[in-house]
Amino acid sequence: MKNKVLLIEDNQDIRENAAELPELYGFEVLVADCGEAGLYLTDLTRT
């Protein structure tokens, strides 16, 4: 199982670029465009 990183950024270009680096190091990157969406993702993926 991969380690997960949650990235919350409202700017789409920055969000896409910032997600690339952790992916290169083998992390699963969850991306959200606002805090509310980020909290929702954490609820969905919490183990």
TrEMBL record:
Classification via Gene3D superfamilies: 3.40.50.2300
Matches recorded under PROSITE patterns: RESPONSE_REGULATORY
Domain Response regulatory, residue spans: 4-47
Domain of life: Bacteria
UniProt xrefs under InterPro entries: CheY-like_superfamily (IPR011006), Sig_transdc_resp-reg_receiver (IPR001789)
Name by which UniProt lists this protein: Response regulatory domain-containing protein
Annotated organism of origin: Mucilaginibacter rubeus
Record lineage: Bacteria, Pseudomonadati, Bacteroidota, Sphingobacteriia, Sphingobacteriales
